Amino acid sequence: MAKAKIKLDKELLNRIKKYSELSGYSSSEEFIVHCLEKEIAKLEESDSEEDIKKKLKGLGYIS
Fold first, then answer.
1. Residue range of the domain that includes 32
2. DSSP the chain
3. Phi-psi region for residue 48, left (φ > 0), alpha (ψ -120 to 50) or beta?
4. Angle, to 10 degrees, between the axis of helix 49-58 and the axis of helix 28-44?
5. CA distance 42 to 32
6. Is 63 inside a domain boundary?
């Protein structure tokens, strides 16, 4: 698997660490990958590009 570095706000990273430990993940990275895979799967289930845009707007990723 290719690795990439991303920058996260320190407060967000602290929350990720907290909830990844509480949820029993072996690492913060594993938790992040699982969250991203779940969100991508939801988008892939959408019937149209318009549905995807609505979901992204609802999540606050686009305006």
1. 10-58
2. ---------HHHHHHHHHHHHHTT-S-HHHHHHHHHHHHHHHHHT-SSHHHHHHHHHHTTS--
3. beta
4. 140
5. 16
6. no
Q: Is residue 51 in a domain?
A: yes
CA–chain centroid gap for 34, Å, is 7
Cα(6)–Cα(18) distance, integer angstroms: 19
Q: Could you state, in chain order, the average pLDDT of each consecutive group of 10 residues for the chain (63 residues)?
A: 87 97 96 94 78 81 80
Do residues 43 and 52 make contact, with C-beta atoms less than 8 angstroms apart? Answer: yes
Residue type, 45: E
